[in-house]
Amino acid sequence: MHCNTRCPQLIKNMALLPLLYFPDPKLHTVAKPVAAVDSRIRTLIANMLQTMYDAKGIGLAATQVNVHERLIVIDVSEERDQPLVLINPQTIWTSTETHLNEEGCLSVPGVYDGVERFDAVTVSALDGDGESRVVEAEDLLAVCIQHEMDHLMGKVFVEYLSPLKRNRIKKKMLKSQREEER
Ligand code: NI
Known about the structure:
The protein is of the alpha+beta class. The protein contains 4 helices and 7 strands, in the order H-H-E-E-E-E-E-E-E-H-H. The chain has helices at residues 8-13, 39-54, 139-152, 163-181; strands at 59-61, 71-74, 84-94, 98-103, 113-118, 120-126, 132-138. Strand 6 (120-126) and strand 7 form a beta hairpin. The termini are far apart. The relative contact order is 0.18. Bound molecules: nickel (II) ion. Residues 105-107, 147, 151 line the site of nickel (II) ion.
């Protein structure tokens, strides 16, 4: 992905996108493939990156901004200057080893809990220029890719937790959403 967030031409057209918050049922929508990497998709990518950086997230799936197409943006770098764009991602390999990782999600603010993920994954996808690429990921990047690809399938990480924990999180989220509406 070549456009970087400091490019002035992009900044002019960029906008923060409203996020969906758990337990919004729209988060359970299964995304459709992106048909073409055109100007609409390039604008969406720029806006999703800005939204992710603004929220201090390391990944964002289009599902979370209520666009149900297979597109995710990620940046796990310390300097926040290595955006990764994956369009129509497909998992082509997973490690046999898994690990319990503490995860959070911009759609479930303030909640962190352990989820079992593959240590490494290889995915094929289109990049922001519509070019095919293969990404071999391990550690945090691998976890992030699995988390974001779940969003595209309509799955939020809290669904891996026990029903008891999930219900507690649901109540907490609904309560804070009601308080914000006041
Ligand atoms: Ni998430």
